[in-house]
Amino acid sequence: MAASSIDAFVVIYDDPETTSNLRQKTRANVSLAYENFVQDNIRVLSPNANANSDIEGLLFVPDYPDGSPCINQTSQYIPQNATRQGDLPAVESMFMAIAPWTTPTSPDCVLSLLEAVRNSVKGFIFYIPNSPPGAPPPMNDPVWGLGDGGSWKSKYKFPVYAIAQPDGQAIMDQLGQYSGVLTGIPNGTALLDEYKPGHNAKMYAVVTLTNATSLPSLWAFLLIVLGIVLFMIGVTSGIMHLYQRRRRNALRRRIVNGEVDLEKLGIKRLTVPQEAINMLPTFVYSPSEKDLLDRPRDHVTALSDFPIKESDTETTDSDKIAPPPPSTTLASPRLEEAPQPPPSSQPPTTIAPVIQQDQPSYAQPTCPICLDDFTPLQTTVRSLPCHHIYHPECIDAFLLRNSSLCPICKSKVLPKGYCPATITNAMVRRERQQRRNRDRIRRIRGEEAAAAIPVASLVEPNERSWGRGRLAVQGRMASFHRQFGRGAREGRSNAAAASPAVEMRNME
Fold it and tell me: What is the pTM of this model?
């Protein structure tokens, strides 16, 4: 942890021989005793502080091993009567060491000092002798190297600090003056007026650490960064979801307005709900008169030969039977409700088949799904909005299970305003891509040429979605031919064979 200041001052405590309560120290009057408050020019060489509180203790100079050459090398910087560890009370456990940093001339001297106080100090303060005033070199400066690659910083578990040379040398000199009873220290006579003669004076140091809560620790910093990242991801995801929801709603509105057909564009296969299928009109198949004359005789089922009066030998337009009202055509009466003419003695005269003019005429004689021919005036057919007709049992199953498009012209069968319950982002992206393709083709071909091109043909030929949609519809048509063709034929053949008498009775 970083040190904001180092305060060195004098403390007064009782004679160790008279009391053992040495932790209750009294700070000497600053006007009578020495004090040095170092606030600037502090370097942290090894921030191995194990506590969040300040580091403090009695100051002393460690001893070199006996016979070490370091004693002579540092004697000029350390006073002879400086406080040593042996001069401190044995019951005291809070100590701070101070010594000159003699590298690069003698790195072994520094290592021997660190090793001597390895398990007995709360911290170590160094200063470089004969260095210029000002802040010590930075922590990574080679002057702090001891030839071990910096492993000493992690080897010793107490913090190591460096201060400027003037401050360090001044504290070292005061250790030689305040190292005994009050009678032998500066201003001792004045201090005796406040303390007893048996009290001792020692140098004390307090290293104030920066508040741990002012700056976040590594874990707190990582948590803050992680929280910021998660917050940004959440905000970005929320904005994207809102934007995508807005685009889905826009596509839903366009589908409801009839501007987009998802199945025609090959984006999504749709089916027609049963309620919408029930609303499609059904009626009895009635081709035009020209189609009846062009078809083989066995495929034409004419109306009964209505007898007429003898006086009415010449038929006029007024003699033809009027078509039934529109309200009766959807019920498929099969001529059961046709009015029976009064009996006549004259031989009956045949007239042309009656065509229900209120229903549209078609030249489509076959159901495209089962490939069976329609029997005029007998087969019930269902008409799609594009006016193509099918057997109800064929087209209902096709629309309900396979597709919402007409099997012939691919026109939309769904009612106007119908929209699927779910609109996905994939649908939005594919529709947007196809819309961009159409816009690009319009720019290339020009507005006039593009206006004459159907919307479905504006999709590029290599568009996979259209190819897949077209092949899928063709496959579904083939499956319906196999599924409904033979069965529908057989069912209608059996029905026709079972009711010949009814048909003959209706034709009479």
Answer: 0.45
